[in-house]
Design a protein that fits this description.
- The complex is a heterodimer.
- Chain A is an alpha/beta fold.
- Chain A contains 11 helices and 19 strands.
- In chain A, strand 14 and strand 15 form a beta hairpin.
- Chain B has a single domain, classed as HPr-like (Histidine-containing Protein, Chain: A, 2-Layer Sandwich).
- Chain B is 32% helix and 25% strand.
- Chain B contains 3 helices and 4 strands; from the N terminus they run βαββαβα.
- Chain B has a 4-stranded antiparallel sheet.
- The chains are: A alpha/beta, B alpha+beta.
- At the A-B interface, strand 14 of A face strand 3 and helix 2 of B.
Chain lengths: 321, 97
């Protein structure tokens, strides 16, 4: 997958709806790309130091920066602004609705860098812009599979086309669980090890059931049957049954699968006719919840068994108690 | 067994209506006849060529350029048949409205 990019145009269009901002340079193109989910304030650049200037990162001019500029000799201020705007960054934001000097706009225009002003304080601007940048620039990919919320656990069903992923999810929906996306799941990474799955924007919770065709799940089952996004927590791999398949019999050894560098627990379920994968899926979800609450059924059972095999009988034989 | 040739073919959507439900169904049906894994890609979005919902999500309009990738024993035949299907406009009209 290509590395995600975010144009200034998209920031203005999407974030401009909820976050007050005014474009001061409407004649400039907004096609510049923001490459960094961080933002910074160009204090040092205004002091003339640009050796380690972060490329592709939005620059926020708060009261500190603007007061500093005002205090400079106009010639020097002009020079510093020229230095700042010769750096490569997507856009500049002036906060707190401060007056923007013409010199700043002229230097910005000369380099084609758009300038916005927002009435928000620098702190509020950072707080409200940052999550958007992080989501938009998060590493992402798409996987062929179906994602459902089962008892609050995000199960990602994977397996060959036609193996029955959609049918399994449909069965789960019928039992009161929720569909996130069928067939194609868009995955985006949040923080270090959280993967959020969602459907493609065109899909709108439709799914294909072989022999029936394309169905609209919320129209058939209501809003409670769907969810917009869900953390992916367990991969359920559906495999055709094979005699030599090495399926786990104890559940003691954890299998994993990697998506975007994040390791997810994986359960492989062999399919044969008449097998109820819906109930098995519910058990997979509940077992996951149980593990997170500190109970590992397989390990606990094994411990009890080992205890039973220890030679306590001998100790009790002549009753030393 | 360990030799799985990967084939790629770039095609352009020819029919006026683009890859809507019927053409997509024709594509996945044909793809399903081959043993090879079929991936269809457009602008970085990759979908399984044997699943109709995936193929529809590409929203490939007339003129859109797609990459068909086949991996498996019969990938060469698969790409030939699938590429021709797309370029023939799925048997639909191709001229401008």
């Amino acid at each position: 997958m290509p590395t995600p990019t975010l144009s200034v145009d998209r920031i203005a269009r999407v974030k401009g709806r909820s976050l007050p901002m005014e474009l001061l340079t409407p004649e400039l193109s907004l096609e510049r790309e923001c490459l960094d989910p961080d933002m910074s304030s160009p204090g040092l650049a205004l002091a003339g130091f640009v050796d380690r200037f972060p490329t592709g990162r939005m620059q926020v001019l708060g009261q500190t920066e603007m007061t500093f500029l005002e205090g400079l000799d106009p010639e020097v201020a002009r020079d510093r602004l020229r230095i700042l705007f010769s750096q490569d960054f997507p856009a500049a934001f002036v906060t707190k609705g401060q007056e923007v000097p013409e010199a700043l706009l002229e230097e910005a225009r000369a380099r084609g860098i758009p300038v916005f002003v927002t009435p928000l304080s620098t702190k509020d601007f950072y707080r409200r812009m940052k999550p958007f940048l992080e989501v938009e620039l998060a590493p992402n990919t798409s996987v062929h599979g179906s994602l459902a919320d089962v008892y609050g656990v995000g199960l990602l069903f994977m397996g060959k086309s036609g193996i029955g992923k959609s049918e399994c999810v449909l069965d789960l929906v019928e039992r009161g669980h929720r569909l996130v996306a069928d067939d194609l799941v868009m995955v985006s990474q949040r923080g270090n090890d959280v993967l959020i799955g969602t459907g493609h924007r065109l899909q709108k919770h439709h799914m294909e059931i072989r022999g029936v065709g394309i169905i609209d799940v919320p129209a058939l089952f209501g809003v409670r049957a769907i969810r917009q996004q869900k953390r992916i927590e367990v991969v359920v791999q559906l495999d055709e049954w094979s005699e030599d398949g090495s399926y786990t019999r104890t559940g003691l050894d954890a299998d994993t699968m990697e998506i975007l560098g994040v390791e997810l627990p994986r359960v492989t379920i062999p399919l044969n006719p008449g097998k109820n994968i819906t109930v098995i899926s519910e058990v997979v979800a509940m077992n996951h919840l149980l593990k997170y609450s500190g109970v590992d059924s397989a390990a606990a059972f094994d411990r009890k068994l080992k205890g039973a095999m220890l030679p306590v009988g001998e100790y009790l034989e002549e009753d030393y108690e | 067994m360990n030799e799985t040739p990967v084939q790629e073919r770039r095609v352009r959507i020819a029919n006026r209506m683009g890859m809507h439900a019927r053409p997509a169904a024709a594509f996945v049906k044909l793809a399903g006849r081959f043993k090879s894994e079929i991936v269809l890609a457009r602008d970085g979005l990759e979908v399984n060529g044997k699943s109709i919902m995936g193929v529809l999500m590409l929203a490939a309009e007339q003129g859109a350029e797609l990459t068909i990738r086949g991996e498996g024993p019969d990938s060469e035949e698969a790409l030939e048949a699938l590429g021709d299907l797309v370029e023939d406009g799925f048997g639909e009209a191709g001229e401008e409205p």
